[in-house]
Amino acid sequence: MSRIGKQPVVVPSGVKVNVTGNMIAVEGPKGKLDWKFRSEVSVAYDEGAKQIVVSRDSDARQSRALHGLTRALIQNMVIGVSEGYEKRLEIVGVGYVGAVQHGKLELRVGFANEVKKQIPAGLDVSCPDTTHVVVKGTDKQQVGQFAAEVRAVRKPEPYKGKGIRYEGELVRRKQGKAVTK
Which of 8, 113, 132, 137 is deepest in the core (most CB within 10 A)? Predict the structure, then answer.
């Protein structure tokens, strides 16, 4: 039995869950998410105990793999609609700045032109100052994907540490060339 899959997902107050067929819809104060799960697993919502139980029909390899995955994705949905997810990025470098204008994230990170990234629907992207970017949303995958795309515009380089990094990310620095006489 999957150690993750057999644990029930506790639903906090203020979150509504609806399971119909192979669809689960979760609605909370931060938004609404729905997802179509595979037929190898079954999902049941216990209204009285306020918890979601994921079970599998057989011990086939595919069913075992999907058991824990389905439970983890449903847990992420419940957390997303109740608390939300957030990724913070910092921009390091002289003259490197970021701003949000007209639904686009505009980055000046050492290229000849400004890089503009369209902000996907369902995400809230803000720049509290010119060197920080905050990505918020209900869908954990969407928040992480957009943050990774922004970071990929200019990854932190190892010699001066310039670029876009996650807040608190450790960038291993290299020594560079040493002048010998």
Answer: 137
